[in-house]
Amino acid sequence: MKRNILYIFLFAALFETACQKDYLDKQPTDAYSNDNLWSSPVGAAVALNGCYNGWEGDYNLLYMDAVSDNSYSQWYWDKYQHLGNGTASAADPDVQIRWDYKTVQKCNWFMENIDRVPMDDKLKARYKGEVRFLRAYQYFTMSQLYGDVPLVVKTLTTQEAAAVTRTPRADVRKYILDELAAIAPDLPASYSGTDVGRITQGAALSLKARVELYDKKYADCIADCKKVMGLGYTLYPNYQDLFRIANENNSEVILDVQYKANDVPNGDIGIMPSSGLGGWASLSPTQSLVDAYEMKNGKTIDDPASGYNENDPYNNRDPRLSATVVYPGQMYEGKYYNSIEAGKDDYYNGNNNSPTAYIEKKFTSNLSDFPDMWNTGLNMIVIRYAEVLLTYAEAQIESGVIDNTVYDALDAIRKRAGMPVVDRTVYNSQDKLRTLVRRERRVELALEGLRWYDVQRWEIGPTVRAGVVYGSRLGTVDAATGKLTLTGDHVKVETRTFNAGRDYLWPVPQKERDLNKALSQNAGY
């Protein structure tokens, strides 16, 4: 699909000139949209590509973990810091970032015009399926973050937009599930050539399974996971290399956002490295995330028999830790990373350096992959097969159906990472397996934008997102060997609050309520 990105860009430019950016503004008229767009299959393809523009993005995917206990956003202007520490208000511009109807507008416009196009019925059905997915995905995100949101599936006049009310979340979720069920048969299992990256049947079923898991519809979730598991996806053999640009569109990727350097680039790779590597260290993994990784023998670090050494804390850990986080003493980009020693380029207290002394590595394991890390073609994965396996395992566990398929799903993920299979003598009950699958979700999917949704649906906010956020202990790093000498306590980054009666949902942005007096507000704001 990367060759189609230019057409996406051109259509987006046409669309934006026709639409103001205020909430649910009127769709473009024919004077702006050009009747020629709907006169041929070529025009329909351009319109379809335009619907993909901005449907999801690297920025939101990367920053969403800062709303959880996995990461810290140190720059308030990046719009996620207040959402992570419990200080966001309805007037805060941060909360506006995901209340976004531009994709919905484009999809509604497409659906109202596509039947004007003389074209093959099967291809037209596929185009409709792609667009309906993009619209459903947007409603998934908004209903997850804001709860009740206006469900709008047609173009609105300015007057209508100013009076629309919030639709109950349950109704929005039913709409999402109904849409995904309806379109799945019309979507192909895979694409080739320039169509790679479009919405597939696997994407529709996987998103449906995700929503069903979140909404505790376990039987439906299990059924949809099984369908996806029969479509031929496999785990990529190397966990760290799974996220490298050379390996994008691999057998594990079910859905991603496609980028192309220079034309429509992923321009946020540079936010992850610290200043000594030319980056901004905008997102910092927390000590809490680091502590979640097991020892390589499969025991947690609080198990006295695990072999964990607090003075050598990164040794003999789950290999996914070193593939996800750059920690002090790790060999990275030709030198041992030193963020804990005053005077060093990456010292945690320096400008554009990580306040936790950890930086993200998952998408930047080899900075040499990017001639310009501010202008890259790295796709951002939205759904991958490992999530489906974890979703299946969790749904089975929560259903009380604990059989070999649950262990097989977890074992496949663990073995790919270089970890031992699940110890069935230890993880032999629903409660213990629930603890395990939740930990596996956290470490396997870390920094991919999903952790907050787990915190939210498990209702563990007061436990994991309140109190002091910690980073690494300070000390020294031997420049020749990487040997750590740690002294003192962990650095303190910020103190977060969490109000369980309020903070599981974001506030409806005040800007939207000023435009539309009919919009109600979430509790506590």
UniProtKB/TrEMBL annotation:
SUPFAM superfamilies assigned: TPR-like (SSF48452)
UniProtKB keywords: Cell outer membrane, Membrane, Signal
Record domain RagB/SusD: where: 252-525
Protein name: RagB/SusD family nutrient uptake outer membrane protein
One Pfam family per UniProt: SusD_RagB
Coiled coil: none
Sequence ranges assigned to domain SusD-like N-terminal in this UniProt record: 23-213
GO cellular component, one term: cell outer membrane
Record family assignment: Belongs to the SusD family.
InterPro entries: SusD-like_N, SusD_RagB_dom, TPR-like_helical_dom_sf
Lineage: Bacteria, Pseudomonadati, Bacteroidota, Chitinophagia, Chitinophagales
Record localization: Cell outer membrane
Domain of life: Bacteria
